[in-house]
């Protein structure tokens, strides 16, 4: 039975040995722990401040991206920075900005759960060389207006 649960007799998580009587189940394996709403499926990327994982939201049955502050930066300042990022992104509604589902703490680490959008990273996209000029010109036009360079009219009028 230990083999089926991959349980270690020296540090049992699921099965307790009772001398001269047998075994006893010591954990309810049918119910996931509250902190395991998300099941990690893989790594999507890492930057200087955080790392992003692909996960399954077991409650809503969908894939999500979980962004964590790096362990070495997961202090009060790192948590506030991640919270500000979540608040700023949650205020925006644009097809090219991921939707924020929630913020929280998982196993003592602060995270943002956000929409998972499959696709290529910029590094992957550019691995075959630069974008053709016609495609490169179209990219900024798809960005939300505040992130585009202002036109001369917008710059002069402050629009």
CATH T-level topology of the largest domain: Phosphorylase Kinase, domain 1
Instruction: Give a short account of the largest sheet.
Output: 5 strands, antiparallel
CATH architecture of the largest domain: 2-Layer Sandwich
**Molecular shape:** elongated
CATH class of the largest domain: Alpha Beta
What does this structure look like?
It is a single chain. This protein is an alpha+beta fold and 159 residues long. The chain has 5 helices and 7 strands.
SSE order and pairing:
Blueprint: H1 2-5, E1 15-18, E2 22-25, E3 38-46, E4 50-57, E5 62-69, H2 76-91, E6 100-106, E7 109-115, H3 122-126, H4 133-141, H5 152-157
Antiparallel strand pairs: 1-2, 3-4, 4-5, 5-7, 6-7
Relevant terms:
about 30% strand; 2 domains; elongated; Phosphorylase Kinase, domain 1; alpha+beta; about 160 residues; 5-stranded antiparallel sheet; two-stranded antiparallel ribbon
């Amino acid at each position: 039975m230990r083999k089926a649960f991959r349980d270690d007799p020296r540090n049992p998580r699921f099965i307790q040995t009772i001398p001269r009587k047998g075994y006893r189940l010591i954990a309810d394996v049918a119910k996931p722990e509250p902190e395991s709403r998300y099941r990690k499926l893989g790594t999507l990327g890492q930057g200087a401040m955080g790392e992003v994982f692909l996960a399954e939201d077991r409650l809503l049955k969908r894939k999500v991206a979980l962004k964590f502050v790096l362990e070495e930066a997961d202090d009060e300042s790192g948590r506030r920075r991640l919270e500000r990022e979540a608040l700023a992104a949650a205020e925006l509604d644009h097809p090219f900005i991921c939707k924020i589902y929630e913020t929280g703490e998982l196993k003592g680490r602060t995270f943002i759960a956000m929409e998972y959008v499959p696709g290529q990273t910029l590094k992957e996209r550019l691995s075959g060389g630069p974008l053709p000029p016609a495609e490169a010109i179209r990219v900024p036009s798809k960005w939300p207006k505040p992130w585009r360079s202002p036109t001369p009219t917008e710059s002069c009028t402050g629009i």
